[in-house]
Amino acid sequence: MLGSAQIAVTCKDTCIVASGDYKDATDPTCTPFEVVPCDVFITEATFGLPVFRHGNAADEVKKLLASVALFPERAHLVGAYSLGKAQRVIALLREDGYDAPIYLHGAMEAITHYYESRGVALGELRPVKGVKKADLAGTITLAPPSATSDIWTRRFPDPVTAFASGWMRVRARARQRGVELPLVISDHADWDGLTATIAATGAGEVWVTHGQEDALVHWCKARGLAARPLDLVGYGDEEEQRGGRGRRGRGMNRFAELLDRLAYEPGRNNKLRLITAYFRADARSRPRLRAGGADRRAVVQARQAGADPRSDHRPYRSGAVRDCPMIMSATSPRRWR
Description:
A hairpin with a 2-residue loop joins strand 1 and strand 2 (14-18). Helix 8 runs antiparallel to helix 9 (268-285). The radius of gyration is 25 Å and the shape is globular. Strands 6-5-7-4-8-9 form a six-stranded parallel β-sheet. The protein folds into three domains: 7-52 and 188-230, no CATH class; 57-183, Rossmann fold (3-Layer(aba) Sandwich); 288-335, no CATH class. By secondary structure, it is an alpha/beta fold. The protein has helices at 57-70, 85-95, 106-117, 171-176, 191-201, 213-222, 237-241, 247-264, 268-285, 293-304, 319-322, 325-328, and strands at residues 7-11, 14-18, 40-45, 76-79, 102-104, 125-127, 140-143, 160-164, 181-183, 205-211, 226-229.
């Protein structure tokens, strides 16, 4: 994206390069990624699995334009991250010959106009606020992904929901988010891009972070490169130094993933299912209470909270609430171990 950069550190005869997030695909809104020869390469691995192969972003834009031509009575609402992705989608649409006005969610206006001020040509852009519903038929509107599942979408006539992301390669993710038109457009390198970049740097040692580290580490080691996953500071480091398994780091990552999925999940019941699954997995990963004092303390705490620990009374029928350990501790003794 515009303004992104790598960091290269040289000491004596050793050069270390930290890539940050990168892609090797062409992007009309920014300068291309530059391969820097180095001895140690720190690479991201957001899509570090062989299943992730993004393909040509221009072909995904053609899918969008074909849908617009097929459904002229419907509005097309494209979910895209406000910084970088949205501007890239707009530029790709212009490259394909789409010259009609493109409408923007209010959260995208400032950063998109900044791109234009830096010389990035994006054509005619209009704010969607205040436009009549009927006038949005046959148009394309870009909005943050979270807005595509919000009541904000009611202003559009029978909208076709699209989402521009590398995660749309996984069909289950598209279904979970209620995406009708998945567009595999990513600002992260796919599996082929990651492996090609590592080879091009000539690095003898590779540190992998931010994503699917294991597969990429295995690929490097199979080719005689020294490689290891690089954990982020504060995510499980202390536990691992004490001989632990980094439970805190994995827990933080799982919680962040939960928040991400909840933000894009439109259905209330589906949100409850996600929360239920999260707490069930969390309960299984924790050590069980030992018989004796720990159980007695739980009973005392339940009684102090005004609940009878011997009863099987459930004030809520919702499975998400019933199976939540924080609530079950005061409603059902059958969950105690």
